[in-house]
Amino acid sequence: MDKKIRLDKILSNLGYGSRKDIKKMVKSGLVKVDGEVVKDSSYKLNPYKAVIEIGDTVVEYREFIYLMMNKPKGVVSSTDDPLSRTVIDLIDEKYRVFNPFPVGRLDKDTEGLLIISNDGKLAHNLLSPKKHVEKKYYVEVEGYVTDDDKKIFAEGVVIDGGYKTMPAYLEIIETDNISRVYLTIKEGKFHQVKKMFKAVNKRVVYLKRVSMGRLDLDESLLPGEYRELTEEEILLLKNS
């Protein structure tokens, strides 16, 4: 990658201040590129190859961020909402400067794995209906879930007044007044999991996404906690 970018754009994108702030900082001689003081904030460089320093600190450049969050209940999977807190409100400012967004949505009352990133290509590949990326959910349901339900889900369930879902895999953990199951689907229609169970006369009382593609939720993350993905996990997502 040989693309050259203005110094002030690089630093503002990384959260070091506005273009105006950075211009002052550069003029004051605080910024070095490859060991040389640069006093022109419009100076262009390849941020992947050049070493940028501010005072004694080496700037770590990256174009994209990838976060895994265990989304809590009561928070909206959106970049902004006039009435509720969003998942973006939960992350640190050092990540918000990248203008990230949730990759797909979880209902307000649903918990679990949510990817937050600014990588539009990755988001498209994970969410495109043509890609059939699997999403696995842990579900608690009112009513006894049976092998007949497994067969119905495996054939596709009719929801939304006639739409037939793609075949889904239902794994029964425990069947009781409140049954516990895993459900794996390959699409993401609005309220799909809830509507699928409603179609077999059962009501979802708890819903948590535990995996997306080949990436599993880090169970050490409490609801509302998040961390950066490792390089291996990013590759797992990209190869989903």
TrEMBL record:
PROSITE patterns: PSI_RSU, S4. It comes from the Bacteria. GO terms for biological process: enzyme-directed rRNA pseudouridine synthesis. Residues 5-63 form the RNA-binding S4 domain. Gene3D superfamilies: Alpha-L RNA-binding motif, Pseudouridine synthase I, catalytic domain, N-terminal subdomain, RNA-binding S4 domain. This is Pseudouridine synthase. Its EC number is 5.4.99.-. InterPro entries: PsdUridine_s_RsuA/RluB/E/F_cat, PsdUridine_synth_cat_dom_sf, PsdUridine_synth_RsuA/RluA, PsdUridine_synth_RsuA/RluB/E/F, PsdUridine_synth_RsuA/RluB_CS, RsuA_PseudoU_synthase, S4_RNA-bd, S4_RNA-bd_sf. It comes from Caloranaerobacter azorensis.
